[in-house]
Amino acid sequence: MPVSQAHKADLLLLVVTLLAAISWMFSREAVLAMPPLLFMSLRFLLAAAVLACVAWRQLGRLSLQQLIRCLRVGLVFGTAMSCWIMGLAFADHVGEGAFLTSLGVVLVPVIARLVFGEAVPGSTWLALPIATGGLALLSLDRGLHLEAGQLFFVAAATIFALYFNLNTRAANTITTISASGERIEHPRVPALALTTVVLTTVGLVTGTLSAFLEPWQTTWQQATPILAMWVILSATVGTALRFLVQTYAQSLSLHSHGVVIMVLEPMWTALIAAAWFGETMTLIQLAGCALIFVSLLVNRWRALRTLLKQALGPRSKPDHP
User: For 160, which of 84, 111, 144, 319 is 20 to 30 Å away at the CA?
Assistant: First the structure.
């Protein structure tokens, strides 16, 4: 039985969530042995070099306007990734960090409202207090305060929400109105070119921060083949391959349920971290992560409802004599 394009896209996006989750482990191993911002710079520059081998034709056709849009997205993404990697470096619990970072999904419509004046779906207003309750439980586990790692993850989630909005606008044609009332059309940026420029910008942003804030000499002296392996795996499997698969999956069908599938990432991350690092959670931590996960599902309720309807299929009507 042939697999539809939409189902193929869903399966590939499930692979993307697994690649993203395993990337947390590679990154965690790397930052235990080297400065976190330097690691991010090496990871993203290497990943961008890999993608450039595929996207060089698209890169050559970028206009100056498109390049500026890419750089703007990259600067925001670089700031978010800097906060994220510092959170990972300070964090005591990788799985908890994954749930905190996933709050960015809930905040996307809120940032769209604040920055671009878009309407906020009703499901978001319901999801926000649930997510806040989850965050409160995670802070209660440590005596009514958030630790440095948690604060970095929450900051990263907020900036990720802005990045998601900017990235969506860069990948699609948008029309703006000038002060004189003239309609200006901004052409979309091809996905691979956009991703390559954004990843390069992230590498440059984190590398610049690392040059000012982190010691490099000790890192080169303590470099080992194992450390190099974590950096290479993070760049190729966790970044380049992940974005290639995600871009391809999104090109297969407009009817994929990726927005629901992608919320599985923190679940995979917590499970893999439990097996990889032997992490465990207290009851309060479990309850806090569960509330955040519920908020993600509530925020994507419309897509989830559609997915459930299609999975159950049309109900057959009984025959009447």
Answer: 144
Distance CA(300)–CA(283), nearest Å, equals: 26
Residue in the structure block whose two tokens are 């409802």: 305
Q: Are 202 and 77 in contact (CB under 8 A)?
A: yes
The string over 260-279, giving b where at least 16 C-beta atoms fall within 10 Å of a residue's C-beta and e elsewhere, is: bbbbbbbbbbbebbeeeeeb
Question: In 3D, which of 174, 173, 24, 186 has the Cα closest to residue 98?
Answer: 24
What are 39-85's pLDDT values in tens digits? 999 999 999 999 999 899 999 999 998 899 999 999 999 999 999 99
| Three-class secondary structure of residue 290 per DSSP | helix
Phi then psi for residue 174, to 5 deg, are: -125, 155
pLDDT in tens, 138-147: 877 665 567 8
The closest of 139, 155, 172, 138 to 104, measured between CA atoms, is 155
11: part of which helix (H) or strand (E)? helix 5-31
What's the pTM? 0.85
User: Closest Cα partner for 246 from 205, 308, 194?
Assistant: 194
Distance of CA 93 to the CA centre of its chain: 18
Q: Pick from 288, 300, 228: which is nearest to 260 by CA?
A: 300
pLDDT per position as a tens digit, 127-138: 999 998 988 888
Answer for the pair 288, 138: CB distance below 8 angstroms, yes or no.
yes
What residue type is 278 in one-letter code? Answer: G
Token pair of 1, please?
């039985």
* 315 φ/ψ angles, rounded to the nearest 5 degrees: -80, 130
> How many CB atoms sit inside 10 A of residue 211's CB?
12
Collapsing DSSP states into helix, strand and coil, what is residue 183?
strand
Q: Are 100 and 138 in contact (CB under 8 A)?
A: yes
pLDDT band at 316 (very low <50, low <70, confident <90, very high): very low
